[in-house]
C-alpha cells in the first residue's frame, strides 16, 4: 500500500487546490462546473496560441485548471503503477513456477541417466527373449532364444535350466547352495544347440532327458569362449556375466493347462480397430467378437476335471439372458454387463492375448501359445493344419472391391486397363483373392497389389489416392462413405478357385469362425473345440448373436 502513497497525496493536493481557489464552487455544483468550463475552455485555447486575454479568466481559474491537471496525472501514473505491479507479481509467480519445472526436469534427466546406465549394464549380459517370462508351454520340449550385443563368430553359450521341485515355489536367485530345492538332473549347464543363432532346444539331443516333465522351470544363459571343453570351469571361460533368470511352465496338454490354471487363452488383433475387436477408451477389449467369446468362455463353459471343459446349456442361457437384459437397460457400463455372467465356482476365466501382427496368429495357435483365436478370422481349409481347426461360422460376409464414388470405370476390367493399384490387408483371405486375380488375362497387365498391415492404413491410402481400389470384407466397408462397389469380382475363374480349392477357403461360404488348437486329436485334446462348437450351435448363443448384430450395427 505504501507504494501508492505519493500518488494518493498528489491526488489530494490537486483536489484541495481546485477547491480552495474557486469560490464559484460554493454555489450549485453541476451548473457552475459547466459555466466554469465554458469560460476557461476558450481562454486555455488562446493561452496555447499565446493570445490569452486575462480579463476573461482569473489566476484562481488557472490554479483550478492546474489542480485538475495534477489530478489527471495522478490517476494516470497510479493506474500505470498498478499495471506495473501486477506484471511484477505475475513475473515473480511465473519465475517460481519455471524454477519448479526446471527442477523437475533435472530430476527426470537424472532418472533417465540412471535408466540408461542400467540398460547399458544390461547390454553387457544376454537378454532372454523366448519363451517370455511366465510363458505356458504345451508339449515336451521348448525352444530357448536370447539376444547378446557382444556376440561374434567365436561366441558360444552355456545354458542352465532348473525345475522347481514340489517342496518350493520360490524362484532361484542363483544356482549354488539352493540347488537342493531343484531337480538335480537338470541343474548342470549344457552348451547351446545353435550358438550362432542365439537359440537352443531344451532338452537338447544329448544326455538321458528326452522330454520335459510337467512343471515350472527357470533358465539363464552365459556367453563363453567358443573353445570351451566339457568339464572346464565356467568362471574361467565365460566372457560376460550370466543373464537374469526367466521362467516358463510346461503342461503336457491344453486340457491339463486349462484345468490347472482355470483359464482359456484367447488371441485377437486390435490393430484392425473394427466393430468386431478393438480397444475401448478405458483400454478394455470390446466388440462383437470380444463380447461373444467372453460370454461363451465365462458364461457357457464349465471347468471339468475329466474333459477339461464342458458345455453347460443352463448356465449359458442364464448368462445370455443377463447380458441381453443389461444391454436393454439403455445400456449400463459394458464391462459390468459382461461381468454379470461371472460367479460360478466351475467358471473359466478368459485371458485375452493381443497379437500385434495379423500374420502371427496361426503360428501361435500351432505352437499352442494360445488356445483360440477370434477376430474377423475367415474359416478356411488352408488354415486348418498343425492341430488347428475352425468351429462352424458365426457370421457370414462377402468380399467386395471398392473404389471412390467418382471413379468412371464401370467394372474391374476397365479399371485394370487404365492401370490400377489395389490395396489389401496383408495375410488375409482378401490378399489371397487379389493374388489369384493377377492370373486373369485381362487383369494381370494392369493390376498391382499393395499390401497394408491394418485396415486403418488401407482406408487412409484410399483416401489419399495411394491406391485406386481396395479388396475388403463388406463388414469393413459398412462404415465407409464416398465409396462404391466395383462389380464383376465373382465372374472370374479366380473367384471359384478361391472359394472351392482347399488351398484357400474350401467351404461353401465366406464366414467368420473361431480357430481352436487341439492336442493332436487325442480324445481329451479336442474337448475345447467340441464344447465351443456345442455352444455356438445352441439356442442361447444364437439369441446372443442377434443382439450383438444390433448392438454393433452389423445388420
How would you characterize the overall build of this protein?
There is one protein chain. This protein is an alpha+beta fold. The chain folds into four domains: about 1-95, no CATH class; about 125-250, Immunoglobulin-like, CATH 2.60.40; about 260-395 and about 510-550, Periplasmic binding protein-like II (D-Maltodextrin-Binding Protein, domain 2); about 400-500, D-Maltodextrin-Binding Protein, domain 2 (3-Layer(aba) Sandwich). It is built from 16 helices and 24 strands. The protein has helices at about 5-20, 30-50, 60-125, 235, 255-260, 290-300, 315-325, 335-340, 360-365, 410-420, 430-435, 455-465, 475, 495-500, 525-535, 540-550; strands at about 125-130, 135-140, 140-145, 155-165, 190, 200, 215-225, 245-250, 265-270, 280, 285, 300-305, 310, 350-355, 370-375, 390, 395, 400-405, 420-425, 445-450, 470-475, 485, 510, 515. The strands form seven sheets. Strands 2-8-7-4-5 form a five-stranded mixed β-sheet. A five-stranded mixed β-sheet has the order 14-9-15-24-16. Strands 20-19-21-18-22 form a five-stranded mixed β-sheet. α6 (about 290-300) packs across α7 (about 315-325), α6 (about 290-300) packs antiparallel against α16 and α7 runs parallel beside α16 (about 540-550). The longest helix is centred in the N-terminal third of the chain and has 65 residues, at about 60-125. It is extended. The protein starts with a helix and ends with a helix. The relative contact order is 0.09. Residues about 25-30, about 50-55 and about 175-185 have low confidence and may be disordered.
Amino acid at each position: 500500500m505504501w507504494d501508492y502513497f505519493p500518488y494518493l497525496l498528489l491526488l489530494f493536493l490537486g483536489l484541495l487546490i481546485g477547491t480552495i481557489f474557486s469560490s464559484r464552487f460554493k454555489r450549485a455544483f453541476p451548473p457552475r462546473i459547466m459555466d466554469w468550463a465554458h469560460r476557461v475552455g476558450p481562454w486555455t485555447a488562446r493561452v496555447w496560441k499565446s493570445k490569452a486575454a486575462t480579463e476573461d479568466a482569473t489566476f484562481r481559474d488557472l490554479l483550478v485548471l492546474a489542480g485538475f491537471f495534477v489530478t489527471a496525472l495522478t490517476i494516470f501514473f497510479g493506474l500505470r503503477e498498478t499495471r506495473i505491479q501486477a506484471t511484477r507479481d505475475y513475473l515473480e509467480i511465473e519465475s517460481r513456477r519455471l524454477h519448479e519445472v526446471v527442477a523437475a526436469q533435472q530430476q527426470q534427466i537424472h532418472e533417465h541417466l540412471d535408466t540408461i546406465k542400467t540398460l547399458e549394464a544390461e547390454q553387457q549380459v544376454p537378454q532372454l527373449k523366448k519363451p517370455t517370462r511366465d510363458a505356458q508351454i504345451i508339449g515336451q520340449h521348448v525352444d530357448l532364444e536370447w539376444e547378446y550385443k557382444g556376440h561374434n563368430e567365436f561366441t558360444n553359450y552355456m545354458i542352465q535350466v532348473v525345475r522347481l521341485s514340489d517342496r518350493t515355489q520360490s524362484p532361484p536367485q542363483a544356482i549354488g547352495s539352493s540347488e537342493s530345492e531343484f531337480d538335480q538332473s537338470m541343474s548342470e549347464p549344457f552348451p547351446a544347440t545353435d550358438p550362432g543363432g542365439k537359440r537352443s532346444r531344451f532338452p537338447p539331443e544329448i544326455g538321458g532327458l528326452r522330454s520335459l516333465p510337467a512343471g515350472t522351470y527357470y533358465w539363464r544363459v552365459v556367453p563363453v569362449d567358443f573353445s570351451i571343453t566339457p568339464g572346464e570351469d565356467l568362471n574361467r571361460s565365460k566372457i560376460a556375466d550370466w543373464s537374469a533368470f526367466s521362467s516358463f511352465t510346461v503342461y503336457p496338454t491344453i486340457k491339463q493347462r486349462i484345468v490347472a490354471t482355470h483359464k482359456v487363452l484367447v488371441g485377437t488383433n486390435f490393430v484392425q480397430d473394427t466393430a468386431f475387436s478393438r480397444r475401448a477408451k478405458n483400454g478394455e477389449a470390446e466388440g462383437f467378437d470380444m463380447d461373444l467369446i467372453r460370454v461363451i468362455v465365462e458364461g457357457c463353459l464349465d471347468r471339468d476335471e475329466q474333459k477339461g471343459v464342458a458345455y453347460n446349456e443352463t448356465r449359458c442361457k442364464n448368462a445370455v439372458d443377463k447380458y441381453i437384459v443389461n444391454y436393454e437397460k439403455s445400456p449400463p457400463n459394458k464391462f459390468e454387463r459382461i461381468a454379470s455372467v461371472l460367479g460360478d465356482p466351475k467358471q473359466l476365466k478368459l485371458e485375452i492375448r493381443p497379437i500385434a501382427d495379423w500374420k502371427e496368429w496361426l503360428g501361435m495357435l500351432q505352437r499352442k501359445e494360445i488356445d483360440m483365436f477370434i477376430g474377423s478370422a475367415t474359416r478356411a481349409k488352408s488354415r486348418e493344419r498343425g492341430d488347428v481347426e475352425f468351429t462352424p461360422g458365426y457370421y457370414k460376409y462377402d468380399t467386395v472391391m471398392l473404389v471412390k464414388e467418382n471413379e468412371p470405370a464401370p467394372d474391374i476390367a476397365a479399371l485394370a486397363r487404365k492401370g490400377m493399384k489395389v490395396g489389401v490387408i496383408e495375410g488375409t483371405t482378401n490378399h489371397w483373392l487379389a493374388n489369384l486375380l493377377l492370373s486373369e488375362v485381362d487383369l494381370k497387365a494392369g493390376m498391382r497389389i499393395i499390401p497394408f498391415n491394418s485396415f486403418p492404413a488401407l482406408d487412409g491410402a484410399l483416401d489419399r489416392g495411394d491406391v485406386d481400389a481396395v479388396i475388403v470384407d463388406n463388414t469393413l466397408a459398412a462404415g465407409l462413405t464416398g465409396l462404391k462397389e466395383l462389380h464383376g469380382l465373382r465372374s472370374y475363374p479366380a473367384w471359384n478357385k478361391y472359394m472351392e480349392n482347399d488351398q484357400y477357403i474350401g467351404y461353401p461360404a465366406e464366414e467368420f469362425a473361431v480357430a481352436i488348437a487341439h492336442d493332436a486329436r487325442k480324445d481329451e485334446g479336442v474337448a475345447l473345440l467340441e464344447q465351443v462348437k456345442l455352444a455356438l450351435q445352441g439356442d442361447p448363443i444364437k439369441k446372443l448373436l442377434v443382439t450383438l448384430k444390433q448392438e454393433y450395427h452389423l445388420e
